[in-house]
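Cross-check.
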Amino acid sequence: MNGSPTVDDLRVHAFAVPTDGPGGVEQDGTATWSATTMVLVQARAAGVTGLGYTYGAAATAHFIESELAPVVTGMDAMAPPAASAAMGAAIRNAGRPGVGAMAMSAVDVALWDLRARLEGLALFRALPSSHDHVPIYGSGGFTNYPLDRLAGQLAGWAERGIGRVKLKTSRHPDQDPKRLTAVRDAIGPGPELFVDANGALSEKQALSWAYRFRDEWGVSWFEEPVSSADLTGLRTLREQGPPGLDVAAGEYAFVLRDFTNLLAPKAVDCLQADVTRCGGITGLLAVAGLSAGHGVDLSAHCAPAVSAHAFCAVPRRRHLEYFHDHERIEHMLFDGVAEPRDGSLWPDPSRPGLGLDMRWDQAERYRVHGRAPGSGD
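Predicted model, tokenized:
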């Protein structure tokens, strides 16, 4: 290995943080949840520890320990793509999409963080970056929010200089007009307004709503109008929907072929990718090349503390989803989280790796897997 340090071990943790939504739950067009679980990986080499994470079921932690840790341990700590290839081969029969991809993503991010820390570089400086910041949009606006909280949350982002805001729609379509009107009145005419149906609508319903969204409330982004698995429906919306309203999907793409299916033939105006689902930094770099080759912008789905670094290396990066649940959890569990400035996230070039330090004292109350450092694990 040419004298490079090798990965000594992986340690895996999971933390389930309750939501702060009404009645302890949050809702979108198709799902209801009461907690968000972060599965966190520590990768160690030469006395240095890198961290990575994904948001998913605690079962992802068990998958990492049983299927991935034995593969990565002993590998070259300076070669995350080699570890990624080895992990992909090892889980062929266990299943790469879904939990497998999310587990790989958390480990891959930890390995890239480790490599950057070993080099003494901020992660975005250790990547082939063409940017030093990523524009963001405020995201939340859950379907069970009362109107005052809905309007207040999105207006709050606009007041902080974030020029794009998004709300969830389509769980109860008959309620959406008053929700959209309240939001547009609160944010004013300037900020861009996005909506996310989370696949709740049929193709014909979505096409009808697309025109209403644009014409009545000036919506410019329609995310997952139909299921992201409905490639025909997405293409219909993109081709027959109103000009000025971009159709977006891709947050549930796990392997490169999933993204290819959205691009050829083109089913979206803007592609989305989640660095904590699509194979981590290594997987995202492949997706970035694919989107550039097809002339389509790429938008970051959630996990802002990682995405802010990763999407600096995306040539056609458009923006990053500054998602309420994730930014809340990351501020709660980490020191070193970047704050929005001028409507963007700017990774700190003076902090090695992701620039994050775990706040173990805050995290322990939410632990659902693993042991605290120093507890004899």
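The longest strand covers residues 35-45. The chain has a mean pLDDT of 97. Passed to J.P. for a second look.
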